[in-house]
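[stage:ingest] chain + small molecule (NDP)
[stage:ingest] validated
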Amino acid sequence: MTVPTVKLNNGVEIPQLGFGVFQVPDQETTAAVTAALAAGYRSIDTAAIYGNEAGVGRALAASGLPRGELFVTTKLWNADQGYDATLRAFDASLAALGLDHLDLYLIHWPTPARDLYRDSWRAVERLAAEGRIRAAGVSNFQPAHLRRLLDTAELVPAVNQIELHPGLQQAELRAFHAEHGIVTEAWSPLAQGAVLADPAVTAIADRTGKSAAQVVLRWHLQLGNVVIPKSVTPARIRQNLDVFDFTLTGDEMAAIAGSDRDLRTGPHPDRFN
Ligand code: NDP
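[stage:predict] done
[stage:export] tokens:
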């Protein structure tokens, strides 16, 4: 199974489809990531706050896969924002993962009321300059946060990882990203299951013989999003990667566009501090 890659603004390539481990307990994470690697995933998305970086690291080590074939992302937690705290938190994440560098490091939330993300970003830029991360990005940044970051940033974030699925299509952010060369990465790409009964989705599932989840993932891929679906169920882990042998028509893409309804499964970035 060869997953296509998307080129980031510094030339680094990220697999367009990866594996997320939010809400997976550390002990179960090793089995889930092992199943994902066996199925053919090479990109793994974790975060310090998930408490399962060690579980991810155990699976990576046990896989025997060359480090260069893997793409590992983790995230700076809100309590660790600020220049020095970011550098310390990064070291702790790397140690938990058992790695000597990361492929992508993200500021997890802007937490605008704390107003530390520009200081945190300077630390992330230092990690990039030192070669300890191959790419630097953010998560849950709204256009206003990106503009404020870009005012002082040396590096343009390579990625903004945001909640995005048929119920929350994020047209404004996607346009901002396109204008600035920032790759859109979709979290909760299946809306944690909440979009799988959408009539536009199930109609395409009926036509193609694919599952609703596969249709939604295919929609993301055709929009150009990077996606990181999560599952702890081996059959679903395999199924979510099996989305490269069918195509949605223009009419079907347009039908899913009609599912947009401001559906948030997570907090609003302007108010999460
Ligand atoms: P997803 O949208 O990926 O949905 C996961 C849920 O869908 C699970 O309940 C899973 O069940 C179920 N599921 C998965 N595949 C299928 C399938 N083929 N058919 C039916 N049901 C399916 O939700 P997440 O919130 O986990 O988002 C994905 C990843 O995004 C996270 O794991 C994390 O890495 C990242 N994320 C980042 C955030 C951020 O702030 N940056 C916030 C939230 C997520 P089961 O596991 O039981 O199989």
